[in-house]
C-alpha cells in the first residue's frame, strides 16, 4: 500500500452538511465517492459554526473579538496524528500507574470496617434474640446496618480512609514508593545498582568476567550477556538523578515498565496507520495500551524484561515496513539497517529475540515466492530477468540488508552463537518442557509456574475472547482485499472465510496443529487464487507476517503461559486493521446506498466499533488496580 493511503481512515466532520439533514425528502441528495484523502479525515469546519448564531434578518456588526476558527481547524488537522496518539498513551500510563496509588486498599478497608460493624451487630442480635430463626436475624442485621451507615456515615468513612492509608503504608517504603511487585524486579534493580556503582551489572570482575555472587551461591556464576534492562535502568538513574538528587533507584525502577509500555503504542499506531488509516491505528494502539495480558506484566513496579517483548517486535516491524515501503534504495538501506540494529538490541534484552526476526524472514520469503510465481510465464527460469524486476529486486535487497545487519548487531551485542539461535531457537523451544531422562538432572523449566502449559481455549480467552479473536483474524484477511473490490468473487470469499473462522473458533478442534492450519487456510487459499490470477493489486506482506505471528505465538502460548504476551502485538494489529477497514468501507457504503449523510454514518460506525474496546479497557483497569507488591514492611524490615 502506498503512502497516499495513509489518510484513508480519517474522519471528516463538516458542520456545514448538518443543515442538509433536515431538508425535504423530495430532493434526493447525491452521494459521490470522494478521494480517499478527503473521505475519512478528522477535521471540523468551525467556520460554518459561526453562522449558526447569526440572525436571519440582519447581521451583527458589533463583534469586537473574532476568533479565527479556520486557524483552530488547521491546527487540529495538522496535528491530528499527535492528538490521536495521545489517547492510547494516556490510557497506557493511566492504567499502569495505578499500583503507585494502591486503590485496592480502599476496598480492603471498606470490607474490613463493614465486616467489623456487621459482626458487632450480629453479636448483639444473637444476644437479644438467641432463638430467632437465622433468616429473621439476617433481616434485622441488614436493617440495623442500614441505620448505622446512615447515622454514622462520616465516622465510618473516616475509619475506612484511615485504615486504607495504613494498608498503603505497609506496602510502601519510607519515601512513599510502592514496593516492586515481584522478585525479578529486585534482581534487575541490583544489576542497575551495580551499573550505577561501578559501570557494569556484575557484582565484581573475576578473571576478566563479570561475576554474579548471588546466583549459585556461594560459588557464584558469570553474568549472562542479556543485560540490556540492567544497563538501561542504571543509566536512566544516572541521568535523571543528576537533575533530581533525591531520586531513589527503586522509584525509578517502579516507573520503568510504565515508560517502555507507553513507547510500545507508538510503533503499533504507525504500523496499522498504513493498512487501516488513523482510525485503525487508534484502535490497534489502544488495544496494545489496555490489553490485560500486557498490563499484568508491565504495571508500575513490575520492572522486568516483559515490556521489551512487546516494544521491540513492534518497533522492528514498524521500521521494516517503512523500509519496505520506501521508494528510494537509500532509504531502504537506512531503515533496513536500523531494523537490524534493533534486532541486535533486542537480543541484548531477551534470549528469545529470534521469534520476531524469523517471522519477518518468513514473511519476506513468502512475498518473494509470490512475486516469482505471478511472473512465472514472463521470466521462466531466467534468474537475471527476475533480478531486473523492481518488485523482486527491491524486497530481495531489503531482505539481504535486514539479515546482514541483524547478523552484525546481534554478533556485536552478544556473539555469533547467539545469532545462530534464529535457526536453532524454534526447535529448542519445542523441546523446552521435556523432562530430561538422559541425565540425573531434571529440566527445571517444568517446575516454573510461568512455563506451565496452557490450553487453546485458555489462550483465546486470555487474548481477548473468541469474538475479538475472530475480528483480529478477519483483520488479517482484510489486508488481502483487492483494490477492485467490486468483483462478486471477493464478497463470496470473504463471506465464506468469515463463516469458516467462526466455525473453527467456536468449535475449537482438539488438535492444536489442526487449529493452526485451519486459521491459516483462508490466507493460503487467497494466496493461491492471487497467484493463479496473477493479481498484483494485493499487498501480501501484512497477511504473511501476521498469520506467521499468530501461528507461532499461539503455539508458544499453549506450550508456556508466559508466551501469551508475544501474541498481543499481532492480535492488536489484526484488530486495528479490522476496525480501520470496516470504518472506511461500511460508512462509505451506507452513505452511498441508503443516502444517509456521511457525518451520521461515520459517527455511528465509529461509536459501534468503539464499543468493542469497552471490555478490554475494563479488563485492563481491573488488572491494574489489583496489582499489589509481594513485598511489605514486615518482609523488608525482617
How does this model look, in words?
With 638 residues, the protein is mainly alpha-helical. The protein folds into three domains: 103-170, no CATH class; 184-256, no CATH class; 257-625, no CATH class. The protein has helices spanning 36-39, 46-50, 69-78, 80-96, 98-101, 104-128, 134-151, 153-170, 184-198, 228-243, 249-290, 292-298, 308-325, 329-347, 354-374, 376-379, 383-388, 390-413, 416-419, 421-430, 456-463, 466-478, 488-507, 512-533, 541-559, 567-594, 598-610, 614-625, 633-637, and strands spanning 12-13, 43-44, 204-206, 209-212, 221-222. The strands form two sheets. It has a three-stranded antiparallel sheet with strand order 3-4-5, with no helix packed on it. The chain has a two-stranded parallel sheet with strand order 1-2. The protein is globular. The termini are far apart.
How is the largest sheet built, in terms of strand order? 3-4-5
How many domain modules?
A: 3
Strand content: under 5%
| Class per helix and strand makeup | mainly alpha
Largest sheet: 3 strands, antiparallel
**Overall average pLDDT:** 85
Please tell me what the overall shape is: globular
Instruction: Give the fraction of residues assigned to helices.
Output: 55-70%
- Terminal-residue CA separation: 61 Å
User: Count of helices?
Assistant: 29
Assembly state of the chains shown: single chain
Query: Could you tell me the number of beta strands?
Result: 5
Low confidence ranges: 1-65, 435-441
Q: Report the C-alpha radius of gyration, rounded.
A: 29 Å
Amino acid at each position: 500500500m502506498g503512502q497516499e493511503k495513509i489518510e484513508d481512515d480519517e474522519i471528516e466532520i463538516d458542520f456545514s452538511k448538518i443543515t442538509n439533514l433536515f431538508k425535504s425528502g423530495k430532493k434526493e441528495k447525491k452521494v459521490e465517492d470522494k478521494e480517499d484523502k478527503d473521505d475519512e479525515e478528522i477535521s471540523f469546519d468551525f467556520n460554518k459554526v459561526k453562522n449558526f448564531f447569526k440572525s436571519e434578518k440582519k447581521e451583527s456588526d458589533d463583534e469586537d473579538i473574532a476568533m479565527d476558527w479556520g486557524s483552530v481547524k488547521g491546527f487540529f488537522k495538522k496535528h491530528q496524528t499527535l492528538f490521536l496518539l495521545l489517547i492510547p498513551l494516556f490510557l497506557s500510563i493511566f492504567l499502569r500507574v495505578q499500583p503507585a496509588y494502591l486503590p485496592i486498599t480502599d476496598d480492603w478497608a471498606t470490607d474490613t470496617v463493614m465486616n467489623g460493624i456487621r459482626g458487632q451487630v450480629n453479636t448483639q442480635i444473637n444476644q437479644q434474640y438467641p432463638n430467632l430463626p437465622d433468616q429473621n436475624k439476617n433481616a434485622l442485621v441488614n436493617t440495623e446496618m442500614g441505620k448505622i451507615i446512615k447515622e454514622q456515615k462520616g465516622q465510618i468513612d473516616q475509619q475506612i480512609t484511615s485504615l486504607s492509608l495504613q494498608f498503603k503504608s505497609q506496602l510502601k517504603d519510607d519515601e512513599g514508593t510502592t514496593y516492586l511487585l515481584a522478585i525479578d524486579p529486585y534482581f534487575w534493580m541490583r544489576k542497575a545498582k551495580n551499573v550505577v556503582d561501578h559501570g557494569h551489572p556484575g557484582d565484581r570482575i573475576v578473571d576478566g568476567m563479570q561475576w554474579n555472587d548471588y546466583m549459585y551461591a556461594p560459588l557464584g556464576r558469570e553474568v549472562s550477556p542479556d543485560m540490556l534492562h540492567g544497563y538501561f535502568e542504571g543509566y536512566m538513574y544516572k541521568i535523571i538523578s543528576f537533575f533530581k538528587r533525591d531520586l531513589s533507584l527503586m522509584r525509578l525502577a517502579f516507573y520503568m515498565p510504565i515508560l517502555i509500555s507507553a513507547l510500545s503504542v507508538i510503533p503499533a499506531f504507525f504500523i496499522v496507520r498504513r493498512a487501516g488509516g488513523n482510525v485503525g491505528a487508534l484502535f490497534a494502539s489502544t488495544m496494545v495500551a489496555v490489553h490485560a495480558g500486557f498490563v499484568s506484566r508491565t504495571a508500575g513496579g513490575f520492572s522486568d524484561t516483559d515490556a521489551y517483548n512487546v516494544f521491540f517486535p513492534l518497533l522492528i516491524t514498524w521500521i521494516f515496513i517503512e523500509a519496505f515501503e520506501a521508494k528510494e534504495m537509500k532509504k531502504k538501506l537506512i531503515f533496513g539497517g536500523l531494523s537490524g540494529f534493533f534486532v541486535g538490541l533486542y537480543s541484548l534484552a531477551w534470549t528469545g529475540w529470534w521469534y520476531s526476526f524469523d517471522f519477518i524472514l518468513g514473511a519476506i520469503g513468502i512475498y518473494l515466492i509470490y512475486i516469482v510465481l505471478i511472473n512465472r510465464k514472463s521470466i521462466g527460469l531466467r534468474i537475471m530477468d527476475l533480478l531486473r524486476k523492481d518488485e523482486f529486486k527491491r524486497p530481495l535487497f531489503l531482505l539481504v540488508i535486514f539479515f546482514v545487519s541483524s547478523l552484525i548487531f546481534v554478533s556485536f551485542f552478544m556473539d555469533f552463537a547467539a545469532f545462530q539461535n534464529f535457526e536453532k531457537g524454534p526447535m529448542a523451544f519445542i523441546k523446552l518442557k521435556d523432562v530430561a531422562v538422559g541425565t540425573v538432572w531434571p529440566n527445571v523449566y517444568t517446575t516454573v509456574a510461568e512455563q506451565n502449559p496452557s490450553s487453546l481455549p485458555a489462550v483465546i480467552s486470555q487474548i481477548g475472547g473468541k469474538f475479538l479473536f475472530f475480528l483480529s483474524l478477519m483483520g488479517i484477511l482484510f489486508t488481502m482485499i483487492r483494490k477492485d473490490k467490486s468483483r462478486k468473487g471477493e464478497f463470496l470469499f470473504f463471506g465464506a472465510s468469515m463463516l469458516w473462522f467462526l466455525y473453527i473458533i467456536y468449535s475449537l478442534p482438539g488438535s492444536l496443529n489442526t487449529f493452526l492450519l485451519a486459521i491459516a487456510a483462508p490466507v493460503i487459499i487467497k494466496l493461491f487464487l492471487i497467484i493463479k490470477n496473477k493479481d498484483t493489486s494485493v499487498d501480501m506482506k501484512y497477511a504473511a507476517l501476521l498469520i506467521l505471528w499468530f501461528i507461532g505465538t499461539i503455539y508458544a502460548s499453549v506450550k508456556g503461559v508466559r508466551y501469551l504476551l508475544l501474541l498481543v502485538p499481532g492480535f492488536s494489529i489484526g484488530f486495528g486493521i479490522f476496525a480501520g477497514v470496516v470504518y472506511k468501507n461500511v460508512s462509505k457504503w451506507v452513505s452511498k446506498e441508503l443516502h444517509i449523510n456521511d457525518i451520521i454514518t461515520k459517527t455511528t460506525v465509529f461509536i459501534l466499533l468503539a464499543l468493542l474496546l469497552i471490555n478490554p479497557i475494563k479488563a485492563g483497569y481491573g488488572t491494574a488496580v489489583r496489582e499489589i507488591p509481594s513485598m511489605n514492611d514486615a518482609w523488608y524490615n525482617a
